[in-house]
Design a protein that fits this description.
Elements (H helix, E strand, L loop, with lengths): L6 E2 L11 H7 L5 H14 L3 H8 L4 H11 L3 E3 L16 H6 L2 E7 L2 E6 L5 H11 L2 E6 L2 H13 L8 H19 L2 E8 L3 E8 L2 E9 L3 H11 L11 E9 L2 E12 L2 E8 L9 H4 L3 H11 L4 E6 L6 H12 L6 E5 L10 E4 L8 H8 L6 E4 L5 H12 L3 E6 L6 H9 L3 H7 E13 L5 E3 L3 H6 L11 E3 L11 E12 L2 H8 L4 H10 L5 H10 L5 H7 L4
Parallel strand pairs: 2-5, 4-5, 12-16, 12-17, 13-14, 13-15, 15-16
Antiparallel strand pairs: 1-2, 3-4, 6-7, 6-11, 7-8, 9-10, 10-11, 17-20, 18-19
Helix pairs in contact: 2-3, 8-9, 13-14, 14-16, 16-18, 18-19
Length: 551
């Protein structure tokens, strides 16, 4: 039970809107000069004000906890002198307790008393109340003592009583995420049906079933995913989007979460981002040496627009962030606007679109232009307003990188004109476009060479194999789950905008005419780039045929 003598009264409530610094001053713990010094340290280090004041030695953890408790009208307790009920741990699982720094202390008349080092949000409180089935009473304690008690409860053999069902769900979700990471999956699908919950992984671009479970575990499993991604577990009728970071063997994996209601319950899709972003050089992504040289010359320009133009799921984001890593340095200011932010890049200012807060692509771009940028990255050009701001940015001396949804590289030029952009602006600012597709690579463990048939050669416009070329395909083995494929690589179509293409844009020529001029100017098509990969033995011919269209 809670030792009442361990409970100390806090200072008089200061009101929820009071800042920590003001609260510490009103309690006589620091003065204005010390607060100003703490704010300067905070501005420099980007840490919390309390941490800055602690570092300066002006406050103790107890001072901070007592002041925050007063601000939020909560009770401060000394956990070191408190009695913790051993069976209280059964109400909050270890991952949740550690995630929110929450110590389950005792139950009293249907209420669970918990101690935290910061006040919990109303959404987190609501989620915990629904999971525990109890009302929560929150107490404030110091960070060090909260962490110390959590370690004692959960890591030193004192776990108390655990619900086997809760533990099984936690183990199942964690196990599937870890398996997906091992299998290099880009997505995990949790799909409820009338009789079962199906789990599928998307590996190398294709979905395959991993396992099935009884439908009765679907609700707690989806709730577990919602809790991890900080979503509302009570909302089951509206779509929700969230994110979480999963630690696996010292590697942090960023995961995007989408939950969608359907007739059988809720479907959840988890996008594992880091598994798609391991390659950082253009050669590793799949660009041939000549394309690397052209692409690097385009992105080294001081101004202009370079577009990545491909359908969804073609690896545009991976290429875009490899480009940002190539360009970042202490001498340039790179700012992005994305929806959502997928990969975090050190040294780059990344802005997330938030419609609820009226942070759209156009509004964010206008603000970015006042931030002295050298390079601007736009997650996607979706409308005329965004396109026009991008064009104007390039005209005023900025390098703009952006994605746009088209099926090939030259079509991006006609797409911008079709959006309503002035043709002369498009022709004078867009300096290059690259389209790409992802193809599966032969499994290195089971691939074997073969002699192509006359029909296979004919499909590629060949009579015989070129000198030095050997075609391979894999029959499948345990290393590739008997698919014959392991990992993916890009085939690219890089269009450098020259005077001939500029003239076609100004004349508002058709997409077919623009593409004809681009090919005549030396652009290698996706199909031709794929043939290079086939001749090198990287991929079988049918894989290139699968992802490209022949004109």
């Amino acid at each position: 039970m809670l030792n009442r003598q361990a409970t100390r009264p806090t200072a008089a409530p200061l009101g929820e809107k009071k800042l920590l610094g003001q609260g510490l001053i009103e309690r006589g713990i620091i003065n204005e000069g010390q607060l100003d010094e703490g704010l300067k340290v905070q501005a420099r280090t980007k840490e919390l004000l309390g941490a800055a004041l602690l570092k300066l030695g002006y406050v103790t953890q107890e001072d901070i906890a007592e002041t925050i408790a007063g601000i939020y009208c909560l009770e401060y307790i000394d956990l070191e002198a408190s009695d913790i009920e051993s069976n209280a741990a059964k109400y909050i699982s270890q991952p949740l307790a550690l995630r929110y720094n929450t110590v389950p202390m005792k139950t009293e008349n249907g209420t669970l008393h918990v101690a935290c080092d910061v006040p919990l949000s109303s959404q987190v409180m609501g989620n915990l109340q629904r999971l525990t089935g109890m009302q929560l009473t929150l107490h404030l304690a110091t960070t060090s003592r909260v962490k110390g008690v959590l370690k004692e409860i959960y890591e030193s053999g004192g776990k108390g009583i655990d619900f086997s069902e809760d533990a099984a769900i936690i183990k199942l979700v964690d196990g599937l995420i870890e398996k997906a990471i091992r299998d290099r999956a880009s997505d995990i699908h949790f799909e409820p049906s009338k009789e079962k919950l199906r789990v599928r992984f998307r590996v190398d671009g294709l979905l395959h079933e991993v396992e099935t479970h009884p439908m009765n575990i679907a609700p707690p499993l989806i709730s577990r995913i919602k809790v991890l991604s900080n979503l509302n577990i009570a909302e089951k009728r509206s779509p929700q989007d969230g994110a979480l970071t999963y630690s696996n063997n010292g590697e942090s994996v960023d995961i995007r979460v989408s939950v969608l209601p359907n007739i059988h319950g809720e479907k959840a899709v988890l996008r594992l981002l880091s598994t798609e972003n391991r390659r950082t050089t253009f050669e590793a992504l799949g660009m041939e040496e000549d394309n690397v040289e052209i692409f690097e010359s385009l992105i080294r320009r001081p101004h202009g627009i370079v577009l990545l133009a491909s359908p969804t799921g073609s690896g545009k984001s991976t290429t875009l962030f490899a480009t940002l890593r190539y360009l970042r340095s202490d001498e340039v200011n790179i700012t992005t606007v994305e929806d959502p932010v997928e990969y975090k890049v050190d040294g780059v200012t990344q802005v997330q679109v938030d419609q609820a807060m009226k942070v759209t692509f156009p509004t964010a771009l206008r603000s970015i232009l006042r931030q002295d940028p050298d390079i601007i990255m736009i997650g996607e050009i979706r409308d005329k307003e965004t396109a026009e701001i991008a064009l104007q940015s390039a005209l005023t001396g900025h390098l703009v990188l952006a994605t746009i949804h088209t099926n090939d590289a030259p079509s991006a030029l006609t797409r911008l004109v079709d959006m309503g952009c002035e043709p002369f602006l498009v022709s004078s600012t867009v300096c290059g476009i690259m389209a790409q597709r992802l193809i599966r690579m032969n499994c290195p463990h089971c691939k074997t060479s073969f002699e192509p048939t006359a029909d296979e050669l004919k499909r590629f416009g060949l009579d015989t194999l070129p000198d030095g070329a050997t075609w391979f395909r894999g029959p499948g083995c345990r290393h590739c789950n008997n698919t014959g494929y392991k990992d993916r690589i890009a085939i690219c179509e890089l269009c450098k905008v020259n005077r001939g293409l500029q003239q076609e844009v100004v004349k508002k020529s058709s997409g077919e005419k623009t593409r004809y001029v681009a090919i005549a100017s030396g652009m290698r098509t996706l199909f031709a780039d794929g043939l290079i990969k086939v001749n090198k033995g990287i991929t079988p011919p049918e894989e290139v045929m699968r992802v490209t269209l022949l004109e």
